[in-house]
Design brief:
Distance between the termini: 25 Å
Number of helices: 1
Order of helices and strands: EEHEEE
Number of strands: 5
Largest sheet: 5 strands, antiparallel
Shape: globular
Oligomer: single chain
Radius of gyration: 12 Å
Strand content: over 45%
């Protein structure tokens, strides 16, 4: 998968364990090309956080154009 930028919509954001979150984001192009175990760099629309965060891809569903991401929360938590 080559590098590109895609804006997504968060569809699901669930707390699944101690400090662990599962996000499903609508990202059609990434859902078609990415594989579990790869990473996406997530940037939030908040000027306090200028760096992107690498988050692991847990799975994709090209039919739904969604990408599932696992996040282990750090202190402070961005999501």
């Amino acid at each position: 998968m080559s590098g590109f930028v895609e804006k997504g919509i968060i569809r699901v954001h669930n707390h699944v364990g101690p400090d662990i979150w599962l996000m499903q984001i609508e990202l059609p192009r990434i859902a078609k090309e990415a594989k579990p175990g790869q990473f996406v760099h997530v940037k939030v629309n908040d000027p306090r956080y200028i760096l992107r965060r690498p988050i692991s891809i847990a799975g994709t569903d090209a039919w739904k154009s969604s990408t599932a991401l696992w996040e282990k929360a750090q202190k402070p938590c961005l999501i």
